[in-house]
Amino acid sequence: MVAVAVAAAVGVLLLARAGGAAGDEAREAAAVRALVARLLGPGPAADFSVSVERTLATKPGLDTYSLGGGGAARVRVRGSTGVAAAAGLHRYLRDFCGCHVAWSGSQLRLPRPLPAVPGELTEATPNRYRYYQNVCTQSYSFVWWDWARWEREIDWMALNGINLALAWSGQEAIWQRVYLALGLTQAEINEFFTGPAFLAWGRMGNLHTWDGPLPSSWHIKQLYLQHRVLDRMRSFGMTPVLPAFAGHVPEAVTRVFPQVSVTKMGSWGHFNCSYSCSFLLAPEDPIFPIIGSLFLRELVKEFGTDHIYGADTFNEMQPPSSEPSYLAAATTAVYEAMIAVDTEAVWLLQGWLFQHQPQFWGPAQIGAVLGAVPRGRLLVLDLFAESQPVYTRTASFQGQPFIWCMLHNFGGNHGLFGALEAVNGGPEAARLFPNSTMVGTGMAPEGISQNEVVYSLMAELGWRKDPVPDLAAWVTNFAARRYGVSHPDAGAAWRLLLQSVYNCSGEACRGHNRSPLVRRPSLQMNTSVWYNRSSVFEAWRLLLTSAPSLATSSAFRYDLLDLTRQAVQELVSLYYEEARSAYLSKELTSLLRAGGILAYELLPALDELLASDSRFLLGSWLEQARAVAVSEAEADFYEQNSRYQLTLWGPEGNILDYANKQLAGLVANYYTPRWRLFLEALAASVAQGIPFQQHQFDTNVFQLEQAFVLSKQRYPSQPRGDTVDLAKKIFLKYYPRWVAGSW
C-alpha cells in the first residue's frame, strides 16, 4: 500500500511538468505544419489540417492525438502537443496510406484521394515519456552532423512521438568559459578535452585528452548548432535534456586549488592514465557546488532550460568506496548543485552503472544512490531493459520513476540483430510489475541507422497499451509499407528474419557485431550464432526473387544490400572455420583454398557490393567529418578522429573494432589486408612446420591497422555499380555452395 502511494506521488510530481503553456499551442502547430511541408511537399501538405489543443489530453501529461476527415475533405490532425500531432500524422500516413518513414529513406507515395478516417480516431499514450538517445549516440552517430541532418532527425523524432531527448552539443564551449573563470589556462583546457569522436566518454569521465584538442571553431559551430537543435525541439513541445556537472574535473583544477580533495579514478577501456583515470571531486569539498552551479548557471543562461538534466558520475567506473554513505553523498552533491541553480531540476540518470557492474552495485549501494534524491526528482533510464532489466531486481528502482529502454545497438555496428519478442512484451511487463513506477518507454542505441524494423516497432510501442498481437503479420505489413507494395516473397523473407536474426532471447543478447569478418583474426574466434543460418540464406533468396517487382524502391535496395552483406558475413564465418580446421589438420591445400576464397574473392565482392550504395561508403562517412572543418589541417584532424573510432579506438587498439562498420573502402583497405596477412601467416606456419604465433601476428597486423588510421587516402563518396546485379552475382556464386554444403 505504501509503495502504491509512493508511485502515485511520483506520477503526480512528473505529470505536473507535463505539456507547455496554452500559448505554445500555435507555435507547436506551426512546427508540425512546417514538418508536413518538408515531408510531403507544399502541395500535398495543403490536404492536411493541423492543430494543437491541450484540452485534447483527458489525463495531464498523456499525449493524445485525434484523426478525422480525408476522402473529399482535408485530413484533420489534432494533438495535445506538437509531438502528439506529429505522431498522429505518422499514424495516418502509416496505417491509412501505407507510407513509411525511415533513416535510410522514406516511402511517401500518397493514394489519391486521401483515405477517409472512419469517424474520429483518438489515441492517448499510456505513459508520460517516449525517450530517445544514449550518451554514446552523440559520438557514434551525431558527431559530424550539420543542421540539415539534425533537422531530418528531429522530424523523425517528432513523427515517432519522441518527447524527451538529450541535447548535449556545445557543452564543451560552456565548460571552457567555466574553466577559464576558475583560473585554468587555455593550454590546460585544450589538453583536457578529447577529440570530437570521443566526447561522449569525456563527458562521462571515462576519458580525457585522447585524440584532442578541440579547435576553437568547433566550439563556435557547436554552440550555433545547439541553439538550432533546441529551438526546433522546443517548437514541437519536446523536452530537451541538458547536461549537468557529474563531479569530474581536469587535473589542472588541483593546480588552481591546491587544497581541493579529489580521487584519481581507475583506468577505463584499456587506456592508461595518460587518457583515463579521471579526477573526481570529493562530494564534501566546498568547490563541488561552486563548479556545479557555475556550469549550470552559464548553460541555462546560454540555452534556457526545460528543467531535466543528465549526469553520469560512475559510468563503467567503480566508485572509490562501496560505503552507502559515500555513494549517497556523491549523489546528493550532484543533485544539490542542480537545484542551487534550478529549483525545479529533475536528474536523468542512465541506469547502465547498475547493470554493468552488478557485483559492485548490491542492494545497499543501489539504495544509497536512489534514496539520495527526493522521489520524483530522479528519473532513471533502465537502459538495457529488453535484455537485462534492472527494475525487476530493485523493486521498481525503489520508488523512483524509470523509463523502460531498448538499447539494442552497441558501437553503431552493422549486422542484422534484434530481440523483437522481448521488445514487444517488455513495456507491458514493466507497467504491470508490482508497484511499478514506470513513466515511459525509450530507445537508447549507441548508434543509429541500422535494423530499422526494430526501431519502428519500439516507436509504435510507445503509443500502445498492449503488445503487438501478431509480430509475423506486423513485419509483413512493415515490408509492404517500406517498399510501397505488398509482395509475397518479400513478406516471407521478413518472416524468416523475424524467426532468426530478429529473435534473439536471453541475457546474452547484445547488438554488438562480433563476426570474424570485423574482428582481428585469430584461431580462437567464436562463430556461433543464435539463429539458424538457413533462415538467412532462404530470406536472401526470397528477397532476390522479389527484386524484379521492388527494385525501384530505395528501401528495398538498401535491405537487399544489407541482407546480402549479412549472408557474406555468414559465409566469412564458414570459410574461416574451414581454414582453421585445415590449419589444425595441417592440410595446406585446403587452407589455401578456403583462405583464398575468403580473402581474395568474398571480401572484394562485399566491398564492391557496398560501393553500390551511398549509405555504405567510407568516403561518405569521412566526408561528413571533413565538412565540419574550416581548414585542410582541421579536416585531416577530424578524418583521423573518425578513422580511429571506426578501428583502433585508441592509440594501441585499446577498444579494438568496438565501433566496426561494413563500409566500402573499410572492407577493402582495413578488414581485407588483415585477413590476408592472417591467412598467409597460417599457410607459412603449415608449410614450414612451425606453430602460428598470435602475439607476433598481433604486432604485425597492428602496423596495418595503424597505417589505415594515419593514411590520407581519399575514398569515393558517390556510389558505383548496381546493387541488385551485384547481389545476384554473389548469390549465384555462393548460394548453391551453401545448399550443397560445399562452401
TrEMBL record:
* Superkingdom field: Eukaryota
Q: Which organism is it from?
A: Piliocolobus tephrosceles
Residue span(s) of domain Alpha-N-acetylglucosaminidase N-terminal: 30-116
SUPFAM superfamilies documented for this protein:
(Trans)glycosidases (SSF51445)
Which UniProt keyword terms apply here? Glycoprotein, Glycosidase, Hydrolase, Signal
GO: which molecular function terms?
Answer: alpha-N-acetylglucosaminidase activity
What's the name of its gene? NAGLU
Keyword Manganese part of the UniProt annotation: no
**Residue ranges occupied by any Alpha-N-acetylglucosaminidase tim-barrel domain in the UniProt entry:** 130-465
Protein name (record)? Alpha-N-acetylglucosaminidase
> Which positions fall inside the Alpha-N-acetylglucosaminidase C-terminal domain?
474-733
State any GO BP term from the record: carbohydrate derivative metabolic process
Q: Secretion signal: which residues?
A: 1-23
Q: Which InterPro entries match?
A: GH (IPR017853), Hex-like_dom2 (IPR029018), NAGLU (IPR007781), NAGLU_C (IPR024732), NAGLU_N (IPR024240), NAGLU_tim-barrel (IPR024733)
Q: What Enzyme Commission number(s) appear in the record?
A: 3.2.1.50
